[in-house]
Amino acid sequence: MKLKNKKILIIIATHGDEPIGISVVKNLKKIKLDKYFDCLVANPRALNKNMRFINFDLNRSYPGKKKSLLYEEKKVYKNFKIIKQYQYVIDIHEASQGINNFIIVSRKKISNFFPINFINLNKVLLWPSSNNLNGSIGSVLKNAIGLEFGVKNKNRSMVITKASKIIQEFIDIIYFNKISQNPRKKKIFYVYGKLMKNEFKNKADKLTDFNKIIFNNEEFYPLLVNQYLTKGILCYKMKLIEK
Asked: So what's the pLDDT on residue 205?
């Protein structure tokens, strides 16, 4: 029997070329956990076309515009009316060039409105929007986080299983108070900039996600190396702010 007022919303296909959320939700439905959460397909048009977006990055569009001529901005406006009804919001992503799994908090500080300690991942990224007007769902709602799963050189089914397990554990804690005896400690990183491809003359294989490097007298941790080369971005830069 489904609950009338569910606490959890899972957002999938914010980017249409990241279908991992579909598989995760299917897994959760198989074990009858869908009575504890709702699911929102954020960008169905892009998903059907296997494209990141149609007109504009939906993950940079919240809270949206009701009368926009851009599909994503208008869709986000409708999404937002649904999303803000829930107590906990999880936006699932995947990175084709990523090798790590992590939590994304789209703010400068961790909010008390989402219990990230109940998410069994040890890396947390504070990644505030660079645009003061529009951003991800987490930039406009304090009770929303993103989960990014790296799939590069990995068995995809194993990544999906892990992602499903993480969300299953979160549901168990929220609804049944099944808190792990040994919660995973968090490393908190702050994403503060980008390293452009034309800046880095060395071989890109010298860069590895979350492995500290010194370049041009600047010490930082690379993030999503080679993920956004089409935009000229070799990687994002992070600093470790708390272990």
From this structure: 72
